[in-house]
Amino acid sequence: MKKILAITTVSLMAISTAAQAVEFADIDSNQDGVLTFEEINGVMADVTEEVFNNIDLNQNGALDQDEFAAAEL
Ligand SMILES: [Ca+2]
Ligand SMILES: [Ca+2]
Question: Domain residues for 33?
Answer without folding.
Answer: 24-71
